[in-house]
Amino acid sequence: MLDEWVLRQRAAGLSEKTIRERVGVIGLETAICCRGLNLTAPGEGRLSNAANLTAVDVKRFLANPAWARSTRATYHGAIRAWSLWLIRTGRRRDDPTFIATTPKIPKGRPRPLADQHLAVLHSTRMARRTWAMILLGAYAVLRVSEIAAIRGAPPCDPGPARGRSWGTVQGATHE
Is the domain of 6 the same as that of 61? Predict the structure, then answer.
């Protein structure tokens, strides 16, 4: 059953890291590394019998006091993906994550880079592409996802727009 779920995730284009972490959360092959905790209760830190989870099992699993809210939300997402796959493939009729309380995701907070830290980064050896991404974040105030979406051509390459184009974001040309 696990092989089918992994195959479905690969077909959907998910990264190997995402697939590996989801499999780890479900605990079908590996137990979750509980960040250095000494777990003494059997089954604590992993889900047992993942195909037959109940809402209480999900709540009990996510109630680990050592986990941050963001960790709980990530694990809940993995359990939800597993449950939805079981429903879609006809192996289950209900979704235990629908009944269980969804963990609150902490609100993101900006962490601006101070000028002195930018100067330290500038003196550090790094790839030109990495430095360009840092500058886009610092001076153009772009988000990480916006920076990652940029596909640029070198300045000496005239590009498709008669030499005026320097890059594209989500298919739109910026000059």
Answer: yes
